[in-house]
Write a structure and sequence with these properties.
mainly alpha
Length: 137
């Protein structure tokens, strides 16, 4: 359940324009979160990468259904991508020592930025799906 809630939280962080157009009173919440958004993104990027590795390493485990595995893999990929987008200011500080790594990160960011809103909405949907799956499976 916590996994689904964190995906919904990350999705809401990634699509502030959509949320604020429907709920203008949420601006106060976004203003309080804004100073920490890059660090939150970095944490989610790391959690997403660990989740991707965990999903890949446990492919042979038959305790869970294929749909549960697929939603876990998609959720981890969304966490990694959205975490990278939101955490790029902090990540670029870490990569500033290597010009090649900083350039590659910038290329990845430029590819992901146009997809940020779409990925955010998908993250909200996958988070809701994970919560529903836990309630019924």
């Amino acid at each position: 359940m916590l996994y689904g809630i964190t995906l919904i939280f990350l999705g809401l962080l990634a699509v502030p324009n959509i949320v604020l157009s429907r709920r203008p009173d949420a601006k106060e919440w976004y203003d309080r979160i804004a100073p920490f958004q890059a660090w939150i993104g970095l944490v989610f990027a790391l959690i997403g990468l660990v989740g991707l590795f965990d999903e890949l390493l446990s492919l042979g485990d038959r305790r869970y259904s294929g749909m549960y595995r697929l939603s876990g893999f998609i959720g981890s990929a969304l966490e990694a991508c959205l975490g990278f987008i939101l955490g790029y200011p902090v990540i670029s500080n870490f990569l500033s020592r290597s010009a090649d790594a900083a350039e590659k990160a910038k290329v990845i960011l430029n590819r992901l930025l146009p997809l940020q809103s779409t990925l955010g909405v998908i993250a909200i949907g996958v988070g809701v799906w994970r919560i529903i799956m836990l309630l019924f499976y």
